[in-house]
Every structure is written in C-alpha cells, then in structure tokens.
Amino acid sequence: MLAQARWRTSTLRQLSRRLYATEAAVESSLSSSTPPPEDPSTTPQRDQGERRDRRRRDPEGTIFIRPWDGIQSMTEAFAIVQGIEKKYGKIRDFKLKRDVDNNDAYQPYFWARFRDIESFNLVPQESTTLQIRVPLVDKTKEGGVGLADLQGLLDSSDRVTTEPSVYQSVAARMTSEKEGEEDSWRLQDVRIERTTKSIYYNLVYEYPNHGRGYILGVGQAFSKWGGFYQPPLDPQTEQQEQSSKDTPLHSTSAHAQTRMRRAQAKWRTTLESARPSHPKDETPPEENSEDISALQAEGVQEESTGAAAEPPTTPEVLVATPTPEPEPTTPVAPEAEVTPSVPTPPAPEPSKNFAQTLTRRQRILAQAREHARAVPSETPPAEEAEANLDAEKKAAEEKDKKVLSMKERLWKLMGIGPR
C-alpha cells in the first residue's frame, strides 16, 4: 500500500509539472469538431460529498474562440490572442490543447478569460468575427517553431482605442509590401462569442511546498534534456564566425555548451547519490575470480603431471635415441640400453590372462591414488591395503568366471559337453 501511495504521489507531481498555474483545463473531453458553448445549468451537478482536486473559476468573463482555418502553430495562437487583446483588452489566461487523434496538431478552438469584466462587456452578445494578422510558418523548417519565431508575441498587448483610418491602413499595407513583410503574414478569420462554461484549473503547488522528490524529478528531466535547438549556420556566416573571434555567437556558443554539460553532469552525480541503496550479494571482483580459476587450473595440471610421472607397474625398456655416427678413425663402443631406475618386478608369465589382470590392477591402483589425493584418507594404511587386496581378488574371480563362461559357450557350439 505504501509503494502504491508513493507511485500515485509521484505521478500526480509529474503531471502537475507539465501544466502552468494560469492554464485552464476544460472539464469535458474535447473532440475535433466544434462544440457549442455549454450552459452550466444543463451540465450534471456533482454530489457535495465528492471532492475535486481542481480549482473551479467562475465562467464570468470567458469567451469561446474558433479560428476559421484552425490553429496551425503556436505562433498563430499567440498572434490571435494579441489581436483579441488589441480589440477588447488584456486576457488573463488561456490554454491550447492537442488534438486527440493527432498529437502533432492543436484543437481548432479554445477558451480564454479576460482580466477584467469591462473587457468582457465589449464583446457583443451575438457571435462576431475578427480579421487578425497571423504569421506564416514554414512547416518544413528543421527544428520547428523556435524562440526567434515567438519574439514580439509572448507579451500581452493593451487595447487600441483609436482605430486607424482607411488612409493609414492603405499606407501601412503598401509599406509592408515594399519591405517584403506581406509574404510573412496573412489574415485569419476568428469567430468569438460569449460563453457561460465553467473552467477548471489543475491544482498546482507553490515552490516552497515542493519536496525532495519533486526537485529530484526536475533534475532527472534536466539531465536527460538535450538543450535548445541550434540550426546550422550558412557557409558565409560560418566563415565569418571562424575569421572573427569577437562575435557574440563565437564567444558564447561553445561556452554555453560547456556550462550545459557541466550542469547536467552535476545533476547526474546528485541523482546517483540520492538513489536508495539496496543490499546486494557481494561477489568477488573479476580479478580475484580469474586468479582463483588460474590457480585451480595449475593444480589440475600439477596433478596430471604427477600422475603421469608415477612409475608404471609393468616393466618398460627405453631404447636410446640413435646418435650420429662418428668418424671411422675413432672407434665407438655400442651404447647399452637405458633402463629406468625403478626396481623392476619379476618378469610376468607369457599368458594373456595374467597380462590382462595386471592391467586391471594398474587401473585400480591409479584410481586409488587419485582418490587419496582428492580426499584425505580417514582409514589406516593397513585397512586400505586389505581393501585393495579384496578388490583385486574380486576382480580376478570375475575375470575367471568370464573365461569359464566363454569356454562353455565354445563347447556348446562344437557340440561337446563340458569337461
């Protein structure tokens, strides 16, 4: 339960960070079609016991805005807001919402609220249409809308009481055509009407109430941020930047990138130190494990070489390697055969069964030696010798039984009874 409560708290904080305190959140889910202004008397009322996490603002002073061609970009939205402010007065807050089906586009309408009731009273009772100049935006521009495109549109505008005359309007249009400004602007028809719709605002905490989790969340988002978009310079400007070191772009761009990387690295270090440490199984480092494996391999190699160096139970005669023949003038005595220093046991009988018994005995003794090296012997040497002799006797008896059974089979095949 505690983990679930923490997850809910962190989710609400992440959602609240995305919203501004002055942005309105419309209660009903909006579709791409144009909805008519709603009357709060027709909307279902909630029970008094049911509480909401969003603050409600009175619908007084709220207008419904719908551009004829929709909202193509953020620059058009700010230009429309400025045009309404110049006509009626300053707007307190507004909010643009993304389209439900296409997240890259905006919904073609929004609500706004005036700062004072006098501005709202200037809006006609019936719907009206305004022609507002909006900037043209190149949709193929790399990086999208930037801060340079929003210059002059972010500040609120005062109401213009005196409308320009026809002569002033024609003169301004001719001047803009000569300067080439007409190609960057167009006229947009915007429909405006009063509405009594209640607007709800998400509850946004003030900065002093933000806890450690909120601050770490902001730091995590900042550490993953790639920075502002910087479009590439044209060749002429880039050449000027390289030739002149006193230009503002040349002196500040590299320095700003360095500061950005340092700040992000600092936040990453802070986030790493703030993570809760969970106990984990301590594993030895790789170097120690490699050393241990190397030592084990050396031990196995020593055991194998030791087992190979042990003298065999059967006598072996080592033939000397032939040496180059000396000169004919120097007589050389024939070399004697080299024999091992280990005392040789008596020569075995030239019987096949006896040679096979010795070979099996040799295997049993080798297994006993390996077992003695691997596990320390807990039995006394006398008992070990007896056990080995018993094993040898059992092996010899089994061998004799096998030989007898083979003889009996041979007799049956030849049609002779056992003797």
From TrEMBL:
Compositional bias ranges of the Low complexity kind: 332-341
Amino acid composition bias (Basic and acidic residues), ranges on this chain: 47-60, 390-400
Region of interest: Disordered: 26-61, 230-355, 367-400
Highest taxon listed in the record's lineage: Eukaryota
Protein name: Uncharacterized protein
